[in-house]
């Protein structure tokens, strides 16, 4: 019983530490300026399998160059795929993993 109580206490302490770290990360990325994010589009065929169908549509995407080392031709590119909600530059806010990786590796 004592061992169980000790495990619960240790788990709670670790969870609290993780929550503090996530809170710090969240606060640091809340400062993202939307003017740092470019909205762009590219055109793709509506039907890739029918050569007679000339219809196409634009796919919107967003680029944040905040952490990019433009002098490094091997800088990594990190991609966040959405598609389940409205498109907005805000999709690049508070995506802890993407932002952390881009900052650490000076990527796009």
TrEMBL record:
An annotated GO BP: proteolysis
Top-level taxon in the UniProt lineage: Eukaryota
Pfam families reported in the protein's UniProt record: Peptidase_S28
Molecular function terms, GO-annotated: carboxypeptidase activity; serine-type exopeptidase activity
Protein name: Serine carboxypeptidase (S28) family protein
Signal sequence interval, chain numbering: 1-18
Keywords in alphabetical order: Carboxypeptidase, Hydrolase, Protease, Signal
Species this chain originates from: Entamoeba nuttalli (strain P19) (Amoeba)
